[in-house]
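tokens incoming
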């Protein structure tokens, strides 16, 4: 790794990302066990997944705009009103997978160890995602993931809806960092960095590179991005 040894809590602490993310609310030393999910809730989650999977298969085959909600409902063997109780908008059918990740960065911050800063935890988590080729990092060349990303980024309404998901992710991270304007500014910058890194990885893979070929550059870009988050936009030593 090319990461420097400086801590995310470094910097001048004057409201910068380094200050807000480095001094965010500490997670519990022993993270609480996740609550038990009821049978009803598990069934609901399975229904969400089944409907979304049916919709995505149809979108990939025919294109998002050429598939109606009524057709998705019929394929999932439910009524159209029932479908809308699960998915308020057609775009949510395709983006349901992202809903699982809305509070992911907030959970990483909240569940970090007592001696780990929020920014260090986020860096560790993103690098681990690159290593396992997590599709959320953009570094995944599995055919089904490539097809889904092409559907997503090739459909303007889906891209627009994705920003709403990212907005909720940003809000969750800001709460995990303690709330307030400084935390919101920090969260906005962190989410933007993660989005840009993922988009760049996806751009290279969509152009024909393999995930393995992109990996080293993706790690370097991530390291540089987190250093920039620590230091802010101005070079060190500049008044």
């Amino acid at each position: 790794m090319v990461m420097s040894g400086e801590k995310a809590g470094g910097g001048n602490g004057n409201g910068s990302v380094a200050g807000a993310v480095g001094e965010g609310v500490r997670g519990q030393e022993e993270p609480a066990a996740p609550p038990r999910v009821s049978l009803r809730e598990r069934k609901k989650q399975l229904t969400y997944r089944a409907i979304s999977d049916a919709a995505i298969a149809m979108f990939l085959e025919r294109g998002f705009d050429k598939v109606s909600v009524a057709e998705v409902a019929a394929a999932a063997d439910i009524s159209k009103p029932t479908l809308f109780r699960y998915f308020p908008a057609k775009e949510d059918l395709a983006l349901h997978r992202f809903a699982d990740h809305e509070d992911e960065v907030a959970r990483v911050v909240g569940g970090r160890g007592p001696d780990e800063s929020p920014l260090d935890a986020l860096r560790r988590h993103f690098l681990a995602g690159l290593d396992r080729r997590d599709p959320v990092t953009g570094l995944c060349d599995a055919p089904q993931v490539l097809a889904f990303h092409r559907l997503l980024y090739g459909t303007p309404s889906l891209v627009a809806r994705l920003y709403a998901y990212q907005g909720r992710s940003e809000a969750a991270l800001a709460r995990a960092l303690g709330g307030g304007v400084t935390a919101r500014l920090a969260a906005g910058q962190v989410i933007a960095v993660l989005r840009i890194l993922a988009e760049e990885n996806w751009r290279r893979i969509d152009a024909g590179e393999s995930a393995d070929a992109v990996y080293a550059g993706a790690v370097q870009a991530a390291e540089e991005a987190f250093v920039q988050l620590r230091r802010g936009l101005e070079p060190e030593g500049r008044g």
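note: The two ends are 30 Å apart (CA to CA).
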